[in-house]
Amino acid sequence: MCGIVGYIGEQEACGILLNGLRELEYRGYDSAGIALLEEGRITRFRAVGKLDNLVHRVGEYQTSGPVAAIGHTRWATHGKPTEANAHPHGLTHSQVVHNGIIENYQAIREQVPGDFLSQTDTEVIVHLFESLLAEQPDGEDAVLKAFRATLNALHGAYAILLVTETRPGEVFFARQGSPLQLAQAADGVHFASSDAPMVGVCDQAVYLEDGHWGVASAEGIRLFDEQDQPAEPITAPLLATSTAAQKEGFRYFMEKEIYEQDAVVSDILTGRLTETGVRLDELPDGWLEQFTSITLCACGTSYHAALTGAYLLERLAKVPARVEIASEFRYREPVLDPTGLFVVISQSGETADTFEALKLAAAQGLDTLALCNVDNSSIVRAASHTVLLRAGIEKGVASTKAFTAQVMALWLLAVHWGQVKGVLDADTGGREIEAMRRVREAVAIQPRVHDRLHRLSKRYLHGHGFFFIGRDLFYPLALEGALKLKEISYLHAEGYPAGEMKHGPIALADAELFTIALMPRSRLYDKIKSNVEELSARDSTIIAITTEYFELADDIIQIRAYDHPMLEFFEMMVVCQLLALEIAIRLGNDVDMPRNLAKSVTVE
Ligand code: M6R
Prior knowledge:
- By secondary structure, the chain is of the alpha/beta class.
- The chain is built from 17 helices and 24 strands.
- An eight-stranded antiparallel sheet has the order 3-2-4-1-10-9-11-14, with helices on one face. It has a six-stranded antiparallel sheet with strand order 5-6-7-8-12-13. The protein has a five-stranded parallel sheet with strand order 16-15-17-18-19, sandwiched between helices.
- It is globular.
- Residues 299-302, 346-348, 351, 354, 397-399, 487, 597, 600-601 line the site of 5-amino-5-deoxy-1-O-phosphono-D-mannitol.
């Protein structure tokens, strides 16, 4: 959601904060701001919109000498994206940045004195802090105690950084349900809500746990746990090379990430395929055999990967599979199979709903597995076991290569499980492995196809909606195709199981309803053909993604013929991604930072 950075040291801080926020801008780009505490005085800059506006606002301003500084890039939850609602929020002598949601902010507003200048939940933190500080008896730890008392009064999720003119050179910090890391480097102390801004600057980071809080200064870090006991900072190495992604000649990160998918497939398969089988060294020997079922839980694109995985797991491993949307699962009082495996799927590893679902399953005593792209993320640290997705940093808000990696990981899991359980015969297993080796070829971009989609896209910039339809494995892909299109084009799109159209949605069919039909040759071709015929008879405009000539299609996007449905799946996936990209570009949208969205959803 929002991005947070902080710095304590003697280097010029504006540049450090703005560079850090640039790394985190994909997490939210409604507004941004920084506060610089120098010689006991705070200077603040804020601006609405993308980070460049803040850079412009800061202009030539530079710090010189010791500074404690905080910064924020916002994805609006409470209050519109205005300058008044931009972080940092301050009162008389303090400023705060926050990621998360303070659920009881209304109650606090009524409780603490003073005028509120924003509509945000965050502003109550600084009001509360200053009011509690005013009540504290003087003493060395008065500010620390007031900060702790502030945290005690907050309900919800937060990562917080606070600076106050009463304690120059210090940054107060806390984490509860939102990621926060800090690191001691040669040039000072750095903070961030994901480690990306610190990579290349620091060797090691301290990944705070929920309930951790404290204060940092040039002299060191005082870290406390939930019970206010001193906590030992646990450090983990940061990658030596910068992960800062570059567009490398592509128009958008999303486009580059679509083109990277063949390399991602190679990476995820490295060391995992043998002549006849799948190795998953992350999972202990004999571990999978104990489970009688699997529950897959995720949000958004990761949920679509989970749905795909359920088909594969039931078919190849003969394990009962159920799929849950994390935000629904949390409050449903779910009854879980006590001998089942609970799997969460997340690109970021920080999605609040998925993280909470994971904790809920673990609290019921289930073994948990995370399929995740970010090592050391909250979800990875909380799960019993993890299979890392190896997709590399994904910057485009619309997930593409992470989806590929998630589906590949689930397919590997299904084949591996089927083999260790003894339900997948050698021939079938061999065919799966052979198909996996060919996915790279299926996702590699063919210039002919990209060019065709570019030309075709100009016909589909209007209309009253898109229906992506598919059956079996291609139903989750239809959902994913529709999600990609709506996220970046802002056109209305739905994914539907093709067989369901006649149970209601077909009422919408007319020439301005664009049906994107996923028509694989290898799975239920005749069935989906009939479903498309029904739509065509009602005059819907048909765009068929298929291997064959299909006389009822208004447009055909031809894919190569394969003998394995997953190869058709992956080639069609690329078509859907590129179609969404080309439509969105023609509509003049910012593909990497679409309106109203953020890369990692750390609020529920
Ligand atoms: O980081 P996660 O995989 O947990 O994120 C889940 C969803 O928020 C994410 O997939 C979202 O739907 C993307 N914007 C899809 O493109």
